[in-house]
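Here is one chain, start to finish.
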Amino acid sequence: MPRRRALLAYVPAAIAFARKRRDMGAPRPLSMLITAATPVAVHAALPPGRKRAAAVWAAHMWAYKVNFEIPYDRPEELRRRLHIDEPLRGDTVIGRGMAPGRRLQRRLRHPPDLTILDRALSYLYYTWEAAPHLVLAWILRNEPERFRSAALRLGATFDLSLLGYWAFPSAPPWWASEREGRMDRELRRVVFEVAAELKRQRRPRVDHNPGGNPWAAMPSDHLATAAMTALLLSELGAVPGALGALYALGLGTALVYTGEHYVTDLLAGLALALGVQAGARAFGA
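Its structure:
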C-alpha cells in the first residue's frame, strides 16, 4: 500500500513539474523523462482491469501532449532549425506549380467571409481530439482481448510522431503563409477563424499561434493516428474499416484545406501508421 500511494503521488507531482518546467528552465530531456514515466507509474500503482487500462491511456495521452510541446520550450533554438521551404517545395511539385492547400483555399474560400465548407471542415478537424480515443474505448468495452494490441499500436503511432518534431521542426502551411509571407500570404489558418466565430470573439488577422508547438507538423499526427484508427477498425469488420478509412480521408482533406498540414505531412503520417502496423505484425503484437 505505501508503494502504491507513492506511485500515485508521482502523478500530481509530474503534472505540477510539467506546468512549471519552463519557468524553472528545466532541461528538455529531463522534462521528457519525468512526463514519460507517468503512465508507467499509473500502471504499476493500479490493479489490473479496464479502469487501469483507461487510466494508463489517459496518462499516456497527457504525457504525449506535454512532450509534443517540449521542443518549443526554447523556440529560439528550434527556430534556427526550422524547415519552411522544403515541405512547401514538395507540395508545390505535388500540386503542379501550386501547393494543394493554397489552390483549394483560392478556389473554395471567400475571405473575409466564412463559408459552410470552412465551418464543416473545421468541425471535422475538431473531432480528431476525440475520435481515436472513442474507438479505443469501444474496443476496451466490447473487445477487451484486442485492447492491448490496439493501444500499443495507436500509442506507438502517437509517440513516434514526436521524433519528427524533434528532428525535423517544420512550419505548417498557415505559419509559412501568415508569418513568413510564403504563398503571398494567401493561405489562412481556417480552424482558428471558425473557433473565434464559435466563441463570439474577434477573428484573428494574423496571430493564429496557440503557443503549444506550431512547428510540429512533419509527420502529421492527425493523419497518422486517424489512419491507425482505421486499421484498428478494419479488424472489427469491413464496414467499420470502411468508415474509418472514409474518416481518415475526410480528415486529410480538412487538414490540407484549413492550412494545418501539407500533403507531404500527410504522406509522412500515413507512412508512419503503415510502418507501425507492419512492425506490429512482424513482432506479433
